[in-house]
Amino acid sequence: MKITQMTRDLPIKKYIVHHFRDDYGSQVVDMSCCSKKRVKKVPKKKCEKVIHLDPDALRYLKFRIGGKYTTERHLFLKKDPSKEKSIIVSNIPSFIGEEVILAMIDQFAPFEVEESIVQRSNANDNSLSQGQLTMSITFEKPEAIIQVLALCQDIGPLTITDFLEEPEFPSVLKDSMSLYKRLFPSEEQIQEMADTYVERYDVEQAEARKEAKRKYSEPDEDGWITVTKKKKTVKSMKLSKEDVPLIGGLNGKKKKVDLAYYTFQIKKNKQEKAQELLKKFEEDRKRIAQLKQARNFKPM
Amino acid sequence: METDELNEDVLPMTNAFKLLCEDFTPKHNKKEVERQRQTARKIKNELENAKSDLKIEYKNLDFWTQHDIKHPLHHLQKAINATSSSVTDFKWVKPSKISIFDSRKLQIFVEIPSELFGNRDYLNLTYPAKRAHFLCFAAKILSGKFEKIEFVAGGINRDDPIFPDLFVDGVRVSFYTSELAKTKRFVPSIGNLRPATVFGENLFKGIENATPMFNQRMLWSLLEFELVQELEKQMKTHPTALLALHLLQSVLEHRHLNLVFSPIVLTARIVRLIKNGQITEKQEILTVLRVIFKDFISWSSDVEYLDVNDEQMEDDVEEEYSQHFDVNLIWRHLNIASRISKNQMARMKKELATCYPLLGQVYTFDPIFIDKSPVFAQYDHVARLQINVAQLQPLLGEFGCDSVDNRDVICQFLRSLEHRIEQTMSERYEFLGIHEILDPAHATWKLGEYASQQRQKTFLVGFRSTSAWKNPLTVGPSAQTNEAKEFRTLWKDTSELRKFADTRICECVVWNEKPSDKVPRAILQFVLQKMFHLPATCLSWRSLTSSSNSSEADRAHEKKSQEAVFQAFTDLSMLLRGLKGIPLMITNVHGVSGYIRGSEPAYPSVFAASATSSRDSGARHVVPEAGKIPLYSPAVTVHIKLEYSGKWGNDVEAIRRLTSSLYVKIAEKLRSEHKLCAVPTIDQLFVLKSGIVFKIVVVNDRILSILEEDVQKLKDSGASRIESSIQGMRLAMWKKKFIAEPLLQMSLQSFATSHKFFGSTVQLFKKWLGAKMLSGHLNDHIIELLVVAAISKRGAVEPQSTWSSFSRLLDLIATHPWSARPLFVDFGLKPWSEKERSKLEEKFVKMRPILPPMVVIHEEDHQGSKFTRENPSGIVLNRLVAVAKDALKLVEKQTIGEKAIDLETSLLTENLSPYDAVIHLEPTAVVRKKALLERRPIPENPKFHPKIPVVELDPVDELVYQLNNNFHAVAMFFYNKYGGHNIGVMFKPQEEEVPAKISRCSLHKSVSDTLLRLNRAEILENIQIMGEGVVADVELKKA
């Protein structure tokens, strides 16, 4: 129940967060703390510039968090080669939130943003609430892109807290404490959750059974009835006397069956045996060589 | 030890083993051999043609100083003055015979002409003095003609400076005379060295006594040549025996037994087997090895002869030998094994008996014949003994007999000490070993110098303890008997009478109230102070933990909490099994936690913190409040299984919901019938029993079959890469968590029960890893498996204490070739067969490129990567190896260093200097530190309802997890789980500067159009933001 410990035990969490809520005594909860932030309106800045720019260049936008956090950071912007009207924005700290980024872009972008989507995070568990995010922003017009890219480097540094009404960021401590609390629903809730689910499950099962039955008895749209073969019952196997020694060896003696009949067969068998021995010897030699090599191995 | 005890179920010889052995044949450098031969011929030539008209009185030892040579017996001038001889003059006479002995090691034997000796020169130091004169003559003749001439200690163990040899350009030149006296003259009961001549008349006026050791030294000098010839004659015709000898030598050398079991003793013993017909020319190497091992293991304490057909000695002479020596292997009155003590025999037998059943296996060849472990790891308890001759002065009367110089006096003392220890505490140890701590160049000295006088010597005393090691009593014989009287005198009247439960009344020495490590220490001090009148300071124990009261209290506390957990778990499991009135009965209760076997440090305590929550007083559990982080409370995980039911359905989620309602039912029952505090959640049930929180989880095999069906469906539909599909991973996860891990835990549990010190070793290992800031880089299971591997290593005698097992653990980590071989852990019970093992090894070689850096194969994981897939990374493993090496050096320093250190504290010192940045944590967020007040179980009181406290919540753990999650691409984090106040940060050097690409821009900033630089300040700021409340400060150490 160790909140992150258990996720640490589950490298597959990233694939199954939503549809696999735990087979194993621990609750996998997606820490979605990237909650909607309330964004302040900040008046637009006016920028104009004569543009001559390589459209594929990696551009950046300076910003800082604000308050006691004053380090200069760079957002990176680039034209999305696959979409005409989009840019990719990367190196977004996940705790800032999508809206703030849009508000920042809006500061100097000459056109409206049509659509924006958070594409991925560089966090190990791919959670969009952790790590540095990458976003795709689509503008109404393709001309916007070249202008945004041209202008972004001259702006700023912008300050994040200017855009936020309540500058507060999620922290590990807060997250884990709230998660801890959520792990203890009341007994009634547990019971209720179990009951509702099982009820629904029972109904679904009953329906599925009905459906299957219907398939056997009623013809479908094309007029077919599914017919299946009955399973054959497996007869118990009886061992014949000859088989017994092969399995356990009751009397301990093996019957020697000499398959070789002609002399050339005998000769061949002998040769094969010798070959086999030789092969085994070679294998042994290889093995020993490996052991010896490992012995001389110095890790540091 | 008898050979009957040995396992006779032995392997047949294989080609692979033969190859391994043959590979071991020492390779001679042909050039070097040829050079030595030339040197030898030159020496022989020089000595034969030398002429010198120097003539001296043999008592004049000073003479050689004018020739820049120091007579080796120079410091014994007084003793030599007291000798007499019928031939007083000494001059150079051409040696009567010079033989070049060209066998494995080239050696020259020079026979000193008998005309130089008088007829009673075997008495006192006349012969050694004259022999040394001859050596000086030879040295003078040879000097200037060879590059390097040195004196070298002679004797059977090559450590006797009274009978030195010459070392000329790497060739040993020995001197002997054959006609000094009959060998019978040197039987043990005859005194050939009057102590008065050596130590003056004051002490030993008129005393004549037997000098068995001196006699043997004389005999060796006289017989060396003949014996070596005799042995070589036999060995030459038996090349397999020769190979076996090399192998045996190597075994003993790596176990630090080579100094007593010198090559001559080993060769003699093997030659004896050849003469007996037990070793023949046609035998395979494996057979020969087995014969030899068996012979050594069954080496009896009776008088034995090198040559069985030889004329045997009379019974009374035999009796004398067995009285004076622990081990007797006689050849013409020379006892080849005279220097071997009982304890060394016991240790050798134990070691060889451990190796014997493994002979013939390819994969145990290395541990038996090649792996070397440090001497301090061979013993469970070690002490450093420093003896100065001055301290022994009062005892000279006892140890001066049969002694020539200080070295002998100390040797005699040691022998007596060993005997006394045996008398006083033999029930506490299996064997003890005394190893001299030598400087490497002790055996040779330059012509112009004296052999070191060795007034002071330092020894390592090691014990292999038995279960009675800490016994608080030394129980003696029944009262009123003669033995009781002896016992009283032995213990200087400190013993008292005690009545035991079986109405026996015995003499007893009472050392302590309870069993303690202090008892054997006190006994040894008693022996040294009261029996030998030595100062207390001459012996200092070297241990992991300091013997202070606080650390002992700590250990007691740990032990107590472990017992409490175990007891509470046993009670709970009884209670659960007997629980009635729940829909399905509980059939199986299985504890899967390190706390139960004591392998988890109880930091701050295993007992739950008492829960005092003012809010919502109705709840049975406590939730964390904002701004207040409670100290850590662990929960002990318990898996339970229910009786079979067919009604679970086919849906994992449905089973989960049903199980959660079952938790509610069980909780109700536990509360109503057993008055326990029980809180169900969706996926587990928390129960507070005897002050300990248990986390109960139902394991349902139905889930396994559902998951398996899913995978099967996927397979049937033609999917190829099952392992990376969701279904495949879910199945693998479930299997790991609910099958592999519990089974492994079970093995660990039983291992911990049979090895009492296992828990404490694991705890120390965990704390040590923490102090090296490596917590979290090794899986907990791997930590325990490594300890098991170190303890149950094949071919080594199992350790019996935390000291030895921890030393071996460090040795294992530091020396295992991690990238070239997997580590096998078999719990010492069911080893893999050769075939299985070679298959696994083969698979390892094939899969090496895709396997993780550390591969640990055990019963539940044949690939060896289940618990090491993600951690440790190669770089961390390298660091682990390096810190283990450092720690080994520290342990070595502790064993042989002049002053005892508090090893545990030194081992557990944190070092923050290597890190690029350091995160300082809020002291309140460090919840695993040692509590100031020891927690106690909450008293069971019907009026007072305890609550489940906040369990398993460690903000530092959470933070480190998120740090890794967020910054894995650019940095690594190192922390100490057990109360560390800092987290070390290392930035990945390859991320320092990267090309300007959108895919690599995270946490960088732009410096030019083509280059991005790591924005360290940004990273540290992010850490501060996400660590609010846990992180106090972030410090960038290197720009």
Automatic annotation (TrEMBL), chain A:
The keyword Oxidoreductase does not apply. The keyword Glycoprotein does not apply. The lineage of its organism: Eukaryota, Metazoa, Ecdysozoa, Nematoda, Chromadorea. Residues 182-300 form the Ribosomal RNA-processing protein 7 C-terminal domain. Gene3D superfamilies: 6.10.250.1770. Keywords: Coiled coil. GO terms for biological process: ribosomal small subunit assembly; rRNA processing. The gene is Cni-ZC434.4. Residues 264-294 form a coiled coil. This is Ribosomal RNA-processing protein 7 C-terminal domain-containing protein. One of its GO terms (cellular component) is UTP-C complex. Belongs to the RRP7 family. Pfam families: RRP7 (PF12923).
UniProtKB/TrEMBL annotation, chain B:
GO terms for molecular function: RNA binding. Residues 30-60 form a coiled coil. Signal peptide: none annotated. It holds the Pfam family Nrap_D6. InterPro entries: NOL6/Upt22, Nrap_D1, Nrap_D2, Nrap_D3, Nrap_D4, Nrap_D5, Nrap_D6. It is found in: Chromosome; Nucleus, Nucleolus. Part of the small subunit (SSU) processome, composed of more than 70 proteins and the RNA chaperone small nucleolar RNA (snoRNA) U3. This is Nucleolar protein 6.
